[in-house]
Amino acid sequence: MAEPAFAASRRALIDPLGATLAAIVAIAFLFQPLMLLRPNRIAPAQGAFAWEALPGLQPMACGIITALVVLILISRADARLRLAAAVAGLVGLGLAVGSGASHLLPPGSAYARVAPGAGAWLALFALSLATGDALVRLRLSPSGRIAALVVAAGVLAGFLASGLWSDLSVLREYASRSDAFLRELWVHAGLSVFSLLAAVVVGVPLAMLLRRVATLRRAALAALNVLQTIPSMALFGLLIAPLAWIGAHVPGAAALGIAGIGVAPAFIALFAYSLLPIVGSTIAGFEAVSERTREAADAMGMTAWQKLLRVELPLALPVILTGVRIVLVQNIGLSVIAGLVGGGGLGVFVFQGISQTATDLVLLGALPTVAMAFAAGIVFDALIDLSRRQETR
Amino acid sequence: MIDFDSVSRLYGDRPAVADVSLRVGTGEIAVIVGTSGSGKTTLLRMVNRLVEPSSGRILIGGRDNRTLPAHALRRGIGYAIQGHGLFPHRTVAENIATVPSLLGWDAKRISARVDELLSLFHLDPALFRDRMPHQLSGGQQQRIGVARALAAEPPVLLMDEPFGALDPIIREKAQEDLLAIQKAYGTTIILVTHDMDEALHLGTRIGVMDAGRLVQYDVPHAIVAAPATDFVRSLLGAGDRAFHLLSLSTVEEMIESGEAPGAAIPADMSMRAALSESLWSRREALPVAKDGRVIGRVTRAALERRGAGPQ
Amino acid sequence: MTPAAPVTPARLPTLLLLVCLMAFLAMPEAFSGLFAPLTRNGAAPIYTQAPLLFLTLNHLALVAAGTLAATIAAVGLAIATTRLAGLSFLPLARAVANIGQTFPPVAVLALTVPIFGFGPVPTLVALFLYGLLPIFETTLTGLTELAPEAREAATACGMTETQRLMKVELPLALPLILSGIRLSAVIALATATIGSTVAASTLGEVIISGLLTGNTAFVLQGGLVVAALAILLNEGFMLLEAIAARRAGRPSAKG
């Protein structure tokens, strides 16, 4: 490798990563519309820059905050200051978007819609990355990261509850179907979590069984691998025909909710996709327990069960949790497709939105999905770190 | 041939190499010995600018090594490293041909050179030319690594623990090969090792490095006879010094007149080897021959007196 | 170099699958008897609004175009961020890649429609964006973590940075890069299926049409063809990876 020390000293005054993010924020503010205005929910949109979308002195305040955030991100400021700047930028962005929506919306018009524009999304993207970058530089403990997530969720909930954003088009869509939204949100979370739980209940014992039989293990992993490569829509499709047949011909099956269309194929498909990561990571986790450790447990007179519960499982846990993390994030994304086969979930809004060309409706389904997947990822990363930490103690 | 002129290298505030000056003459084998972290590898890597000095300069044949672009400089300097660093996706012949083909030699000349080097390292060209590195034993990989370093007939060869990964018997063979090749081409060699025995065996000059400083730089005999610091003495191993001394001198200088029983030993045999021959064959004295003619004898008593300590 | 034998007992099921798929696509009507029991009220057992072969080729063309574009961009990006000038952007690129991975493909697809309208373009964009991540990550790993000694030796032999990249780093990273392309292509195949919800004419059209009209035969044949394509695509790339791994001097990597 050549000499990074030389290059670093030359750029000592600015932070290259921060400068890139700051440039995105500046471009978003100066050259991209903060808000989009539509005469009705499916009409083409018209952009409004920050200084057109905000009332009174707010554009100036917005500009000053943007300039400060940009300056702090460019400089080699310490991580705490960068974090403060990025969070201030995010909160400012939230306030500006809410205020812009109220200001732009023609009074009394039931059909006009105001949504955040490309500028707002770009700024959100860059400021979120800056926040994440600052948090990484702070080297937060796992519990610290969960606390940060809780604070972020609290701020988001505060914005939603305060009514500041209620003029935004996405929340208009929500307002007109809040009951359905909450129901589908639960269905979505339920599908993702319960298919995962079922996969853990089946997969972990299956893995422990396969661990002992090498030939069976190879065959099973190969089969699960093939299953994993089958696209979700195809797998849903392949399940519908047999399930429809069972629902129609096996007595009592229909009463249990087994039918070609609905929750059953979605649940089974998600369960099938979850098996490979769970089984694979469990086998890997157990293989990582050293032979010496096992011998030590035997030598101390542990029974097979005691050895499993007190030695092997705790040591394999971090690796198993990595599999669980992959599955949960993947399931939250895949559950969207359940909307296609009548399985419900937030995909219902995504596909309704696509068929009505209503972007806001798509967002109503997509944004909570992304937020859930993201939060699940952070929580599990922290859990994995915690379980590893116990190991080294 | 190679001059280090007050060379230092800092990592942060910590000096890895501190103010080292030394001169390696043409055709010499300079061996740099030190523990890990002593700065010996950093010193070596500054010659072909894998590491740039923080201060000082290095002259090769009187020219500052920064006058050429780094890649052009490196094509003129052979470099062999521990673990050999062969390209796993290229055949043995392609590996050896790396620098010649970078230099634009024509195919005929390259292939002749590859075969010549393979033969030099006792590897049958027809058998080994098209093998992949993973099909070779550790010792063979090591030899290909050195052959690659020598391919473009560089006047200078740098070696970083080149024999570190080999088992003792193969290592000894590889060291003999290196000495033979050095004699054949007259290459100037700088070799880095942590093994003082290897240094004494190979070096025409030995430099000892400790915490970034060059604490002694001299011919092997002088290092053994008068270690500059306790650190050098500890590297030599207190009890082994006598043996080191014996192995650095030949019996020729202590031949006395007289008869002795049994087969004669050659005059250029080391004193150490002569002593062990005398013990093994249970002879108080051995006849010494030069050019096929017995010219005198050495006695065990005399050998033991030499081994008792520096004169 | 002995090329990997294309026919071994282990590959027999894959070959059989390939033959079945080609037979079905060539003359789907011949199989209508198999699908007829799944239809009701005398509905057609085989999808005919567009020829299945056309949909398959279109589907594969979309996948190929999206994956090719993603490969060029991701490999280029990975090379740029591993050169000295780009090193400080490595954390940013990693962060974007990580966030991208939590983004469900359907969401990418749905959110591209407002910008590019209905048709194949949003699908292509989603394929491209979602295909970037696996290729970028594997290329990065391949360029930075493989054979550090060989890379050092390349520098010490006097290769310029470009020569080292072309002659040593990229050839050694090729098997890993191919595994990234395989992941991307398999994901792209799935995303292209969903792409028919935004009017890309792919095999997803057959499944959706079946769902809308309650014709389980359509749903099943669409699912079967897509599943077969996915398995064959995956196997094909695994074969390529095994060959590339052998070329890169790693005989232990299994195919």
UniProtKB/TrEMBL annotation, chain A:
Pfam families: BPD_transp_1. InterPro entries: ABC_transp_perm/SBD, MetI-like, MetI-like_sf. Keywords: Membrane, Transmembrane, Transmembrane helix, Transport. GO terms for biological process: glycine betaine transport; transmembrane transport. It is a multi-pass membrane protein. The keyword Transmembrane helix applies. One of its GO terms (cellular component) is plasma membrane. The chain crosses the membrane at residues 12-36, 56-74, 81-102, 114-134, 146-165, 185-210, 222-246, 252-276, 361-384. It is found in: Cell membrane. Residues 185-380 form the ABC transmembrane type-1 domain. Belongs to the binding-protein-dependent transport system permease family. This is ABC transporter permease. It comes from Xaviernesmea rhizosphaerae.
TrEMBL record, chain B:
The keyword Transmembrane does not apply. Residues 2-236 form the ABC transporter domain. It comes from the Bacteria. Transmembrane segments: none annotated. GO terms for molecular function: ATP binding; ATP hydrolysis activity. Keywords: ATP-binding, Nucleotide-binding, Transport. The keyword ATP-binding applies. PROSITE patterns: ABC_TRANSPORTER_1, ABC_TRANSPORTER_2. One of its GO terms (biological process) is quaternary ammonium group transport. InterPro entries: AAA+_ATPase, ABC_transporter-like_ATP-bd, ABC_transporter-like_CS, P-loop_NTPase. Pfam families: ABC_tran. Belongs to the ABC transporter superfamily. PANTHER family: GLYCINE BETAINE UPTAKE SYSTEM ATP-BINDING PROTEIN YEHX, OSMOPROTECTANT IMPORT ATP-BINDING PROTEIN OSMV. This is Amino acid ABC transporter ATP-binding protein. The lineage of its organism: Bacteria, Pseudomonadati, Pseudomonadota, Alphaproteobacteria, Hyphomicrobiales.
